[in-house]
Write a structure and sequence with these properties.
The complex is a heterodimer of chains A (539) and B (345).
Chain A lengths: L1 H21 L11 E6 L15 H10 L4 E8 L2 E11 L2 E6 L5 E6 L13 H13 L4 H6 L9 E5 L2 E5 L7 H5 L9 H6 L9 H6 L7 E7 L3 E6 L16 E6 L3 H9 L5 E2 L4 H10 L3 E6 L3 E7 L9 H10 L2 H9 L3 E3 L25 H10 L7 E7 L3 H17 L3 E7 L1 H9 L5 E7 L5 H8 L14 H11 L4 H18 L2 E13 L3 E2 L15 E2 L1
Parallel strand pairs in A: 1-10, 1-11, 15-16
Antiparallel strand pairs in A: 2-3, 4-5, 5-7, 6-7, 8-9, 9-10, 11-18, 12-18, 13-17, 13-18, 14-18, 19-20
Helix pairs in contact in A: 10-12, 11-13, 15-16, 16-17
Chain B lengths: L4 H33 L4 H5 L7 H10 L6 H13 L13 H36 L4 H15 L2 H15 L24 H8 L2 H38 L2 H8 L4 H31 L1 H6 L5 H10 L3 H29 L7
Helix pairs in contact in B: 1-14, 5-6, 5-9, 5-11, 6-9, 7-9, 8-9, 9-11, 10-11, 11-14, 13-14
The chains are: A alpha+beta (539), B mainly alpha (345).
């Protein structure tokens, strides 16, 4: 008995060894045509409209679906970034805006086909846009910012023409149609999977795609990886050509050190979310291409709740703004990788321009901070908490320690609170945190949009809970201001108010550090802050 | 009435299973309440699109059933469980049952391999140390065990990756169970090393094993210590006992004395500890899973916990509790095999 099992074991071992020798390299020839992108996050739905969808899902949908229009790209300090002011056709061959700005007419490409081969028609466009403004999905709140609120606004003129009507000439209507949500879905396929409870097929589209995009989904394992393969018929990038990579693998690798190893060893081609320290050492080694773009549509703040004492006192907020060790924080948190939003000089005390976010005229000046505290009637200081979420601990933790140390010098005792992400969002939403750090991002970064969304109302994104009717009125008015000079003037006034009221302190715009194999080209910083797989190619 | 050995074991197992049901129910209710007591509203967390407002939050709350009162939610939850439905994860967008079913084999495969490596290393080490107490070998084993326990698994994991993958390129990239370019075998057991063998794909099997080695070793290093220490202690007791003295005095071979008599008697506590180690490993290997991007249940539960995603956490705890019950059963049965006296009631 023992003898038999021994013989069996040896023969299995021997066979295995033989097979191993025989079956060596058989893959690898398609490696150059494959893009392996690793990320700490993951794709959780194939339809970015589903509440709770991740940024990786947004990026994936840019490749699996087309929109009517797309953003162009421009160079900013030698790096490619998306260009909000250039809107090109994607499924639309061309578009016209009527002179009064109330009608936009799109003519669709005649050669555009869905991945199942059926042509893209104006009916599909209407169904998709109707879905975006009617179904209980994320697109609704986004399109609202471009005055797109009702299905009546989308009218089919003929099979290749669709007309969008606006109640007011809204600058953001067209850019909104280039964002993630208003993707064009194959309505015939989607309708087949709609049910009475779910007329917009949200459940089905979460797990399946029915688009005309540059890539089709080959396999989708939520939380692990997605593999997409090229749609050979797609030609919306460069004319007559599909996207470059035949296959793209989007793989979740939670450990940042492992991601750094993978890209350094050449096993991964592209990664965005490395730790700042790793990026620095990889850049110093010089073997890989590192493209660092300040996230010019994002801002990191130190926020104070303007409704909670003592932060309801403007002088307390000014004192804090004069007591933060900006340079040290910038170095400790980001290793200096980003665009600082502090330390400006305003020669005549007026904003340099009307663009938000802007560099504020604030710097570390403890004597001034003490004066402000005295003016606030708190010369002895006070106690408060400073919160940040676990997900941002890598940058926020060193920063919080510096805030605590520096404020301690002017008598403000700070307790550092590290909160789980869900708890932090809840407390921010309920406006319970007095003093914390958080970030924001705007897909359509225009001055009025920032002020309307992040400085007015009682919603979560108004971190400082500022409630200033003047500021709200100027921002609201600027939204529909067609005159460029007047818009600029409104922006200057808002920026001046920001520095005067100091509702919260803008710290910096962190860099998006894209680290890639030297052979990867064409990387562009996109509005959704992820890679658009259609942009990249290999030399 | 005389029952046979096997029958008695089965009866015992059945009784154990029945008596664990109330405990499982308690775990169920307790986790449910605990998740709801924790601060942090999942709806707010998941409504984090750049424009998500109150309406989206309400929408998600309704979708997750959080708009109802807690007792109502509990009743719905229990009836769902009765129908085999563990709810849906917001994080992955999948039913929790499906997620767990896909991820559990990954965790089990890793844990089994790690436990096997640990046992293969720990039992001989413990026996060696017990045979020569106070010698260099004994101290060497003690040092090795101390080191294994001191170094947290993610540190040893990262070190192993650094040396074997980054420096020497011997190991494959530490990204999950299988190289991304290898196609998967048809799923039968969920254990890749078995599925590849069943499919007759030895290249794939080797690829899967290579992926498995580093994470399994870094987990094993951590649990070798308790296993080796307990083996040593119980070997010392059994080597000093009367029956070993008798066996030695009648001139039995060294091998027979140590392996057949001493070790067989010493193995009971090792089995107990191995059972406990196994259950803790399953839940506690989250760090290893994170470092090696292993798509297991522990990292899944941790991600869910951080984002207050109730359903996966509850599902995970229920799964772990059930596994614990099962492992205890298996340990019981192993007892019976190792020591026939145990099964006679």
């Amino acid at each position: 008995m023992r003898f038999v099992s021994f013989r069996l074991a040896t023969s299995v071992l021997a066979t295995t060894a033989l097979l191993l020798i025989a079956a060596a390299p058989s893959q690898a020839q398609t490696r150059a045509e494959t893009l392996r992108y690793v990320t700490g996050a993951s794709v959780n739905t194939l339809d970015p409209n589903i509440p709770g969808s991740t940024r990786e899902s947004f990026a994936l949908s840019m490749s699996t679906y087309d929109r009517l229009v797309a953003f162009g790209r421009k160079q900013l300090n030698g790096k490619w970034v998306f260009d909000l002011d250039t809107i090109t056709g994607e499924l639309a061959e061309s578009y016209d805006v009527s002179p009064d700005g109330l009608k936009i007419t799109f003519r669709l490409r005649k050669d555009a086909k869905f991945q199942d081969g059926s042509p893209v028609t104006a009916e599909d466009v209407k169904w998709s846009l109707d879905r975006c403004v009617t179904a209980p999905i994320l697109g609704k709140a986004q399109l609202l910012t471009g005055s797109l609120t009702s299905a009546d606004q989308f009218k089919v003129i003929d099979p290749l023409t669709i007309e969008v009507t606006l109640p007011k000439p809204d600058k953001l209507a067209l850019p909104n149609l280039a964002t993630v949500y208003p993707m064009i879905i194959n309505s015939k396929v989607a309708k087949e999977h709609a049910t009475a409870d779910d007329p917009w097929a949200t459940a089905w589209l979460k797990e399946h795609t029915a688009g005309s995009g540059a890539y089709a989904v080959e396999s989708f394992k939520p939380g692990e990886q997605v593999i997409i393969k090229r749609n050979e018929a797609w030609n919306r990038g460069s004319p007559g050509k599909p996207a470059f990579f035949k296959r793209v693998i989007v793989q979740s690798v939670p450990e940042p050190a492992t991601r750094a190893n993978l890209v350094e060893r050449g096993d991964a081609d592209l990664v965005l979310d490395l730790q700042a320290s790793d990026v620095q050492s990889l850049e110093a080694k010089g073997k890989l291409k590192v493209i660092s773009t300040p996230q010019y549509n994002a801002v990191t703040y130190v926020s104070m709740n303007n409704q909670i004492p003592p932060f309801d006192n403007v002088n307390v907020r000014r004192a804090i703004a004069s007591a933060l060790p900006y340079e040290d924080m910038f170095k400790a948190a980001l290793f200096g990788r980003g665009a600082p939003l502090f330390g400006a000089t305003w020669p005549d005390g007026k904003p340099l321009n009307g663009i938000y976010p802007f560099q504020q005229p604030v710097k570390l000046d403890l004597d001034k901070a003490r004066e402000y505290l005295k003016a606030a009637g708190l010369p002895e200081g006070f106690s408060t908490t400073f919160s940040f979420n676990v997900g941002q601990a890598a940058t926020a933790e060193p920063m919080a320690a510096l805030v605590k140390e520096s404020l301690g010098k002017i008598g403000i005792k700070v307790d550092i609170q590290k909160l789980p992400d869900a708890q932090m969002s809840t407390q921010i939403n309920e406006k319970k945190l007095p003093f914390f750090t958080e970030g924001i991002v705007a897909w359509l970064p225009s001055t009025d949009y920032f002020y309307r969304n992040f400085y007015t109302g009682s919603q979560r994104w108004n971190y400082s809970s500022i409630n200033n009717p003047d500021l709200a009125a100027i921002a609201q008015q600027a939204r529909f201001e067609p005159d460029k000079a007047k818009y600029e003037e409104a922006g200057r006034r808002l920026n001046a108010m920001h520095v005067d009221l100091m509702p919260q302190i803008m710290l910096w715009q962190p860099n998006q550090d894209a680290v890639m194999a030297p052979s990867v080209e064409g990387y562009t910083y996109e509005f959704h802050r992820q890679v658009d797989y259609r942009d990249v190619s290999r030399k | 009435m005389v029952t046979t050995g096997l029958g008695a074991t089965l009866v015992r197992a059945g009784r154990r299973l029945l008596s664990s049901l109330p405990a499982l129910f308690g775990v169920l209710v307790f986790t449910f309440l605990l998740m709801r007591v924790l601060p942090g509203d999942p709806a707010v967390f998941f409504a984090s699109g750049p424009n998500a407002g109150k309406e989206e939050i309400e929408q998600i709350r309704k979708q997750m059933g959080l708009d109802k009162s807690v007792p109502e939610q509990l009743v719905f939850y229990l009836s769902d469980i009765g129908h085999g439905n563990l709810g849906r994860s917001m994080m992955t967008g999948q039913p929790v049952l499906k997620d767990l079913r896909e991820r559990l084999p990954a965790s089990l495969e890793l844990t089994f391999t790690a436990l096997l490596i640990a046992l293969i290393a720990a039992v001989p080490l413990g026996v060696l140390a017990a045979l020569r107490p106070g010698s260099i070998i004994d101290h060497g084993v003690r040092l090795f065990c101390a080191l294994g326990v001191c170094v947290p698994t993610f540190v040893s994991g990262l070190l192993l990756i650094y040396v074997f993958y980054y420096l020497f390129g011997l190991a494959p990239d530490p990204t999950g169970r299988i190289d991304v370019f290898t196609s998967l075998p048809p799923q039968r057991t969920g254990f890749l090393s078995i599925d590849f063998l069943l499919a007759g794909d030895f290249e794939g099997w080797w690829a899967a094993c290579r992926q498995l080695i580093l994470p399994a070793v870094s987990m094993a290093l951590f649990v070798i210590a308790p296993l080796a220490r307990i083996t040593r202690a119980s070997m010392l007791v059994s080597l000093g006992s009367d029956f070993v003295r008798t066996a030695r005095s009648v001139g039995l071979s060294w091998r027979k004395v140590v392996v057949t008599y001493a070790l067989r008697n010493a193995i009971l506590p090792v089995i107990t500890i191995a059972g406990i180690v196994f259950s803790t490993m399953l839940g506690a290997n989250v760090l290893v899973e994170k470092v090696f991007s292993w798509p297991g249940v522990a990292s899944y539960a941790l991600d869910a916990l951080l984002s207050s995603d109730y359903a996966p956490v509850q599902g995970f705890v229920l799964l772990m509790a059930s596994l614990f019950v099962l492992v205890n059963l298996v340990v019981d049965i192993c007892y019976g095999i190792a020591d026939p006296r145990v099964s006679i009631e």
